Amino acid sequence: MDLQIVRDVACETALAAGEVLREGYGQIHEVTLKGATNNLVTEIDRRSEDLIMSRIGRVFPEHAFLGEETGAGGRQSPWRWIIDPLDGTTNYAHHYPCFCVSIGLAYEDEPVVGVVYQPLLNELFVAVKSQGATLNNRAIHVSGVDTLASGMLATGFPYNLQAFPDAPIAAFESFVRQAQAVRRDGSAAIDLAYVAAGRYDGFWESGLAAWDTAAGVLLVTEAGGRVSDYADAPYTLGGPTIAASNGGIHPAIIAVLQAASRRP
Ligand code: IPD
Ligand code: CA
Ligand code: CA
To answer: What is the domain class of 148-261 according to CATH?
Structure first.
């Protein structure tokens, strides 16, 4: 597989899907609920996913696909496109300008190409396995921050938080007390891209799906950072927990997550 061709197709597709999001932004949408009362979907999520699936499917008809809105499809293949057509739907539905398109290609469940596009800022984050990460064609690297106390972290909360608030809130409270700042921006793919770009120093969240993280985890590792689960074991796509950081503060992040999980 020529990863440069894959990369180019992923970038062109993310830019085109981003245009769909930009055009629909700020308008009233048909908002419907997926299960939980806080898990939203709009017609723009579906329009963006249709565009992505048809473009990539035309070039790589032999590949497998996993899209948030259409589920699993395509052929049986070790190559699998993992797509979040609009990460940050709650923001989008509330006209809060923080959302993106996330497109990843995995080989045997290991991301090899990742693209995150934030259309309102025209920021295109791209990673290719063993070839580094870029933002608008310039190399990016994780930050050099080496203590939690000087770090700016990001997190998000799972859609079942209202039913099971204890563990996520315990971790959030500990980080708020120990880090320089904590943000909750509502787009896990952007959070990971920002760790890669050195804007955030670390990120943690539970309950994310493969489409939230497939592109972002490759951005972080290719920018020199670390990704694991809360027990510091290797993160697997769609696994229950994820911690990502610049590497330097990873042990401190894991220590907080472990202590929070032991709190009664
Ligand atoms: C959500 C966002 C959010 C995270 C949620 C995700 P969606 O994705 O990434 O930051 O906290 O868990 O489900 O639904 O906007 O694509
Ligand atoms: Ca998402
Ligand atoms: Ca989504």
So the answer is: alpha beta
